[in-house]
């Protein structure tokens, strides 16, 4: 996720939850969670960023500019951190490479035993690298601490429907939900809220420092971390004892190298000094690399969303009505097509909804309300009718390093679009991600950039984390009607009815709230040398980049 990353009706669970085709994005049938699952009828060598030589030994070397906030699952909710977690932590349910269908992983099976109780039975013999057992109390501890810590940069919002966790015996975990028939909860178990951590290593009430995490060796995924220099280099080694669904590591040693500059990342993959480049190169870089012999550009399903967030307390406007008028004016002025073509060379498409167009239930609500092209007259009218003096002073913040180097060009273009009308005076500022991720939840930024990779392939993941009370944005949006609609869609078992509710949420957010303004949507892109295989396998609609299927030679 990028944050990328990380939210009641009654009735009984259906006899089955119908799975749509793989291009449709709704919860997989629980029958697909393994043969034992029941659904109750009643309910190389490379170099570092500074040019230092990498270690020999045929390691797979992956380069990225996508920085880590924390490798403690309670302390981060972003794509860079989650990519690391996916290699080293176990999940009760997970997605095999090449699939967006949930399967048991650390669990042997999972099932609804009533409309509000979801039970998982653990596999025997799963242990952490340090030798500690993975038992039901460990699972309970893992979820309880995410909720208790409730870190501003953490994934606690994904567990908003979780009432309690119980461990009635060593191999049984029972999740009691607040609202019944939650169509998304199994997928939450594979999300950033789902990594299982060692209760002997992680404190119950605080996020653990990354170096202490590595020293404790609390890893039970396909890889363990051998050495760690935060946002510089992480060395992974395959674990002999791993037998989960991510598969046996095809590269026993992987070096993940962090680049401060996409220019250096592009140079190293072009010169084959690294094996794989994953997030984030500029569109011009990708276009250029497609012409280089021995380099292959791999594309995966979309789902990424780039958007602007409004802090409803600190944004311009003296009243809620004036603040809404400012947001409507901005929605009327942003030229998404210019951003798509002028900045991103068509590698991103205009986004007219809070839910990307390829996801079940998406409707182009912003285009329906504000049109597909800038409308300065409408913008001026919104401001005039609310009594907002112009030009409106707008402090707009973005991160130059976290969402790719084109962020500077993207937000310079947004600034120019708003100021060209004379309706806004924009103060555009940038902050490095390590500071940005803290300040954005502290009422420092009136309006700011974020990007999003979904935690699981379902429309709810673009709704619950953003628009429920106490959402991860920390932008003070809360609306009882929207909350009720989100709860309803999550519990609705009929796909067509659920899509109708999801469409209504999008339309109401576009016309009457606009707590976030969608700008662009994109697909996954990874660059690799021709000696590397398996990259295309991991670029699937689960949006999890796994090392296990990737090999060189």
TrEMBL record:
The protein's superkingdom reads Bacteria
Which terms in the Gene Ontology molecular function aspect does this entry carry?
A: peptide transmembrane transporter activity
Q: Where is this region: Disordered?
A: 1-21
Transport as UniProt keyword = yes
Can you say where in the cell this protein is located? Answer: Cell envelope
In what residue span(s) does the Solute-binding protein family domain sit? 101-471
Gene Ontology cellular-component terms listed: ATP-binding cassette (ABC) transporter complex; cell envelope; periplasmic space
Q: Alphabetically, which GO biological process terms does the record hold?
A: peptide transport
**UniProt cross-references to InterPro entries, sorted A to Z:** Peptide/Ni-bd, SBP_5, SBP_5_dom
Please report which protein family the annotation says this sequence is part of: Belongs to the bacterial solute-binding protein 5 family.
This protein's UniProt keywords: Signal, Transport
Listed name of the protein: ABC peptide transporter
What Pfam families does the annotation carry?
SBP_bac_5 (PF00496)
